[in-house]
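Now for a typical sample entry:
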Amino acid sequence: MATLSDILTTHAGNWTLVPGRSRVSFQNKTLWGLSTVTGRFTEFTGEGTAADEVSGRVVIAAASVHTGIGKRDNHLRSADFFDIETHPDITVQVTGLGAADDGSARLTTVLTIRGVSKTVDLPVTLQVLDDGALQLSGRCEVQRGDFGVSGDLLGMVGPTTVLTGELVFTRG
């Protein structure tokens, strides 16, 4: 696994996200905590720069949400949840990278959903793959209500969403 120092020195440059080798997913409790909805987004793009500082951006097409149940996916696209007609994209803007207390890395990001932007501190692991690509893996929890994502019929849907990303970048 590459260290933070490695990323900022040996891996300096511009990086492009490879969607076919990456995954963006989420989990949310429903049915009053008895069940977990798991979903993923199938369309996203991104780029980043590693130099003295780290920056980047990932844009996720909210309409690409996929849970395996078409009716639920359509509801998630509606104004109750992602409101894709008004807010077609979910964005993650990376504004910095630093060391975490345990020696791993932490991205400072601004997550924007439904036009609402919040700073999210995202712990990540960094790995240089055999072909020289860089894989960032991270997981965080957000309160969906903080982003105006309601859609909570009779209190069935839990307030916390777990976001997970395994993103592969190549030089470019």
Q: What stands out?
A: The two ends are 21 Å apart (CA to CA). The helical segments are 4-9, 70-77. The chain is about 10% helix and 55% strand. The chain has a mean pLDDT of 88.
